[in-house]
Amino acid sequence: MTNSDNFEQNILKHAILDREEFLDMYNPWQTEQGKEVIRNYTNIIHEQSTDNDVNKENFSWLTVEDDFKKEFLTGNRDKKVGIPANVDFALPNHVKGDIDYSNLFICLTNPNIQVEDKYLAESQYK
Q1: 13: phi > 0 → left, psi -120 to 50 → alpha, else beta; which?
Q2: Which pTM value belongs to this model?
Q3: Is 10 contained in some domain?
Q4: C-beta contacts of 55-63 below 8 A and 24+ residues apart
Q5: 24 CB contacts (<8 Å, ≥6 apart)?
Q6: Which residues form the domain of 87?
Q7: Engineered SS bond to 68: which of 37, 62, 75, 114, CB 3.0-4.6 Å?
Q8: Where does the source fall among the domains of life (predicted)?
């Protein structure tokens, strides 16, 4: 048995080959917290009240993950940090390609929306 065979066996031993199992394990939108974020967004868009204190001023897709919430949303969000307001309201990305035959997933938090714009007014930052 070659090193290559050992490597493949080790990788396959830990692989998740079932799409539903993979999504159940890694899709934050299937959790109760994820569903609550989606409900809040829908209610805000339709100008309905939310079940909690979330409104269009403090809504963020980043609340789907506790780590994002701690890093980006709690405490004093200093304007000097330069987090554009559109990061909070940007729509989440979907999987592109065939999830059943994928070997690699690149997971980014709202890519391409936090592009620095030199001409934005300071009011555009939270």
Answers
A1: alpha
A2: 0.55
A3: no
A4: 59/88, 59/89, 60/87, 60/88, 60/89, 61/37, 61/88, 61/89, 61/90, 61/91, 61/92, 61/110, 62/87, 62/88, 62/109, 63/33, 63/37
A5: 30
A6: 17-124
A7: 62
A8: Bacteria
Quote the CA–CA distance of 100 and 97 in Å, as a whole number: 9
Tell me whether residue 91 is in a domain: yes
* Tens of pLDDT, residue by residue, the chain (126 residues): 677 778 878 877 878 878 788 888 888 888 898 899 899 988 988 888 877 888 888 888 878 877 777 776 665 555 445 555 666 666 666 667 777 777 766 666 555 555 555 555 555 555
Q: Is residue 21 part of a domain?
A: yes
Please count the structural domains in the chain: 1
